[in-house]
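Box 3.1 — From sequence to structure: Methyltransferase domain-containing protein
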Amino acid sequence: MDKKYWEEYYSTHRQVNEPSLFARFVAENYAGEGEKDLIELGCGDGRDAIYFNKQGLNVTAVDQASGQIEYLEDKFKDQSGINFVCGDFTQLGTEHTYDLVYSRFTLHSITESEQARVLNWAYNQLNKGGLFCIEVRGKKNELYQKGTQVAGDPDAYIYDDHYRRFLDFEGLCAQLKGLQFSVEFAQEADGFAPFKDTNETFIRVVSRK
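Predicted structure (token representation):
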């Protein structure tokens, strides 16, 4: 969804910022010791992928914004253990397995059917004991129901020129459990991603295969 929007956005937002609070939370509480393979679904400006790599993880960072991926590939070409891939994270292959699948602010950018495909893919491609780490907008988020509702989807809206679908917290946890994930952390609260003068409510879930 919104490939053109994000291509244009990152064409003027090339800088790599500090890692998100979620990336720090995952690294400090779940990444553990030793070499691990992580894939990020929708890496954006690359800040979390680069942070995880600096923590000693082997990182594959996927995003559909080709210009941003080219920029990141060039900027970090001498940094080992990180691979930037231009692609649709809802259509990934099955040739690799991972210890962590990381998705921050990306599941709300895709449709419900695409989400189901991604969750199934994550379970299948995770090694035993691997973690699926999600931070996403839910129905308690302050932007819920703002903008123009997307036809056929009562929880999706076009606002600020791009698509957002707001997930149901209990529904997401149930979907993960239905795939045989063990949910180790699940909360819908503010304080996860304060930005400038805002402190919106987000869903944060860490589940284990």
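Summary of the box: Strands lie at 37-41, 58-63, 82-86, 98-104, 126-136, 148-149, 156-159, 162-165, 182-189, 202-208.
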